[in-house]
Write a sequence for this structure.
């Protein structure tokens, strides 16, 4: 037998791809602490926390409007199944978190769909789960979006647009003026 034949079988790793967007990213650089170059391993028994407190959160968002701990992700395996999942919990007392069209208040939690958009304030995060076999750890791979993930991915808008046609969450940077859009876009 060769060493190749005797080598242990490699396990695939569950990876959560997270594409981050904020309309003021270029001016305020709120994602500057995220490493967009590589996947980061997280032990299966750890919670991945997102927020502005670098002493508590593994993934820091540099914005005073973000809670110290905004939300957490917990990796788990479903009972009597080999399927791995993520649970998302809102840890902000001030800001509601929306996962697709489900609104989560403080300490509310739900299973993360395999592909969804997480929103809070002006933040939009496209989360996509790439399944794997490993039970010891998972990976998070952050990406930076150039355009809003709601438009870029051709997903339906999660917020109703008022009759004026202007969504307040899109134009919160004071130095940018709204642009007129065709109602069919």
């Amino acid at each position: 037998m060769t060493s190749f034949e005797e080598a242990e079988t490699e396990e695939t790793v569950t990876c959560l791809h997270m594409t981050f967007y904020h309309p003021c990213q270029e001016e305020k650089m709120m994602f500057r602490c995220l490493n967009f170059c590589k996947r980061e391993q997280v032990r299966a028994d750890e919670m991945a926390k997102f927020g502005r407190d670098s002493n508590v959160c593994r993934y820091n968002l540099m914005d005073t409007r973000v809670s110290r701990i905004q939300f957490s992700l917990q990796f788990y395996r479903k009972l009597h199944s080999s399927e791995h999942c993520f649970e998302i919990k809102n840890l902000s007392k001030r800001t509601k978190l929306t996962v697709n069209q489900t609104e989560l208040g403080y300490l509310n939690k739900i299973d993360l769909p395999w592909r969804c958009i997480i929103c809070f304030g002006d933040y939009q995060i496209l989360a996509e789960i790439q399944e794997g076999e490993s039970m010891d750890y998972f990976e998070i791979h952050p990406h930076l979006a150039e355009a809003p993930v709601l438009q870029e991915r051709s997903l339906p808008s999660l917020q109703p647009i008022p009759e004026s046609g202007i969504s307040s969450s899109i134009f919160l940077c004071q130095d940018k003026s709204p642009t007129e859009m065709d109602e069919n876009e």
User: Anything to note?
Assistant: The chain has one domain: 13-149. The domain at 13-149 is CATH 2.60.200.20 (Tumour Suppressor Smad4). The chain has a mean pLDDT of 84. The helical segments are 3-6, 25-28, 149-152.
